[in-house]
Specification:
The structure is a homodimer. Chain A is about 40% helix and about 20% strand. By secondary structure, chain A is of the alpha/beta class. In chain A, strands 2-1-3-4-5 form a 5-stranded mixed beta sheet. In chain A, helix 1 runs parallel beside helix 4. Chains A and B meet through helix 2 and helix 3 of A and helix 2 and helix 3 of B.
Chain lengths: ~140, ~140
Amino acid sequence: MDTDAKYMLEALKEAHVAAAEDEVPIGAVVVCRGKVIAKGHNMTERLHDPTAHAEMIAITAACEAMGGKYLNDCSLYVTVEPCPMCAAAMNWAQLGRLVYGASDPKRGYSLFSPSLLHPKTEVVSGVDSEECSKTVSDYFKAKR
Amino acid sequence: MDTDAKYMLEALKEAHVAAAEDEVPIGAVVVCRGKVIAKGHNMTERLHDPTAHAEMIAITAACEAMGGKYLNDCSLYVTVEPCPMCAAAMNWAQLGRLVYGASDPKRGYSLFSPSLLHPKTEVVSGVDSEECSKTVSDYFKAKR
């Protein structure tokens, strides 16, 4: 298994934690020099907080771990394409690399403007996208 | 003094608290039915957290005060035009009304897309903009 697939599996584990807590199952991890330094999953329902997306939680935790507000040397893995809020947060953090699984044709940042991200952030999409997408669709099917 | 000017003064007080803590001086308050329910000021340096903008802190605190993740009946006052991250957070919160002071021609959300905000959010700009702008420029002058 390649490195991106390996870390995406970690992000998927976080997504399943969210599902178990009855949250829309999206998960994220931040990796720096071969080490997972932060994890997050969607907690908007539990915290009654619309800003508590997996990526926001992971960015805040990663900055805490790094002791600074920049993540130039880090990769963030997230199961679903970030929304504009999360993409703009990655811009402020000057994230080195963004890897996401499924695209989000309704709420993804790329619908608005790719320039929401920092110009230096490398982007890789479609890693394990079927599993990432299925995790979300299974959740909504079960809710019906 | 009209209502918007009155609450913008409260947001300016928050900006001055930020300046005293050596943070870029931006402040925000959230008002619901004539009552300030949340306040926030920029804390990105102290928390080493690029997401700790005045508006994000105020939105999270307002949702906690309301016990829910929507702010339809609320107005958010902020001294400077929100960035895309904060505008998109207001979208998720379905904010009723956004009132800001100074425009931000470098980082303001309107540079990217006005549709980062929720379509139902009413926007008022330019309230006490000179004082809001001066608060930021005085801070950077003193830093030089």
